[in-house]
Write a structure and sequence with these properties.
Layout: E1 6-10, H1 15-26, E2 30-35, E3 40-41, H2 47-61, E4 66-69, H3 84-112, E5 115-120, H4 134-154, E6 159-166, H5 172-177, H6 182-189, H7 198-209, E7 220-223
Parallel strand pairs: 1-2, 1-4, 2-3, 4-5, 5-6, 6-7
Length: about 230
C-alpha cells in the first residue's frame, strides 16, 4: 500500500466542508482543513495568507494529493448597489484562492504523477438568477472556467480537475441569506423531492477523489436532486 493521501479542504469548518472532510477521512485520506475558524487558520480573501497556509501544509505534511476548494460565501448585491471592495473580497475567496493553492500544490502532484483538484461550484448559474446574486453566480461560473483550463493544463501530468455543483443545500449559512420558503421552493423544483444535505456533495467529492474516477477530468457532477438536467 502506498502513502496515505493528503486531502486539503478549504472551508472545511463549514457545513458542506466538514461533511467533505468526514467522508474523505472515512475513505482513508489524511484531511487538512483551511478555514478562518479551524485547522490551519487562513484568510482566503488574502493572497499572502492563502500562500502562507499552503506553505504550512507542505511543511507539516509534505504533500497535497487532493485539493478541494469548498470555501465560498454569498454577499447579495444587485448591480445598482455593487461595492467594488465587497465584490473583490468575494472573488478572492470564491475563485482566486483556488489559484494560489493550485500553484502551491500542483508541482508536487506533477512530481508524483497523481493529483485531484475539485472545485465546488453551484447549479445556480444554469437558472435565471436573482439580481442580488450577481457576485455569487459570477464567481461560481468562473470556477468552471478555472476547472476546465486546469484540466487541460495538467492532464498530461496525471492530475484530474473537476467540479461539483450542488443545488440549494440545507445549511445554516444558506438559511441565513435566502428568503423564507426558498428551501421548500427548491425542493418543489427538484425531481427528487427531498432536501439536499451536505453529505450529497461530500460523497460526490469523495468519488472524484477516488481511483474510481481515474478517467474523469474537466467534468461537473451536479448534486441538485434533478433540478437541472444536462
Amino acid at each position: 500500500m502506498g502513502e496515505q493521501r493528503v486531502a486539503v479542504v478549504t472551508g472545511g469548518a463549514g457545513a458542506i466542508g466538514s461533511a467533505i472532510v468526514a467522508v474523505l477521512r472515512a475513505s482513508g485520506h489524511l484531511t487538512v482543513v483551511l478555514d478562518r475558524t479551524g485547522g490551519i487558520v487562513c484568510d482566503l480573501s488574502s493572497a499572502s495568507s492563502t500562500q502562507a497556509a499552503a506553505a504550512e501544509v507542505l511543511e507539516r505534511y509534505g504533500r497535497c494529493d487532493v485539493l478541494v476548494h469548498c470555501a465560498g460565501y454569498l454577499d447579495p448585491m444587485p448591480l445598482a448597489e455593487l461595492d467594488l471592495d465587497r465584490w473583490r473580497a468575494l472573488m478572492a475567496v470564491n475563485v482566486e484562492a483556488s489559484l494560489w493553492l493550485v500553484r502551491a500544490f500542483a508541482p508536487g502532484m506533477v512530481d508524483r504523477g497523481f493529483g485531484r483538484i475539485i472545485l465546488i461550484s453551484s447549479d445556480g448559474q444554469w437558472f435565471p438568477p436573482s439580481a442580488e446574486f450577481l457576485p455569487y453566480v459570477t464567481s461560481k461560473a468562473a470556477l468552471l472556467g478555472v476547472m476546465r483550463t486546469l484540466a487541460v493544463t495538467y492532464g498530461e501530468d496525471g492530475i484530474a480537475v473537476s467540479a461539483v455543483a450542488p443545488g440549494h443545500t440545507d445549511t445554516p449559512a444558506a438559511r441565513a441569506v435566502v428568503a423564507d420558503g426558498a428551501l421548500d421552493a427548491s425542493i418543489a423544483s427538484q425531481v427528487l423531492k427531498r432536501a439536499l444535505v451536505p453529505e450529497d456533495t461530500a460523497h460526490a467529492v469523495a468519488f472524484l477523489a477516488s481511483d474510481g474516477a481515474a478517467a474523469m477530468t474537466g467534468q461537473v457532477l451536479v448534486t441538485d436532486g434533478g433540478a437541472y438536467m444536462r
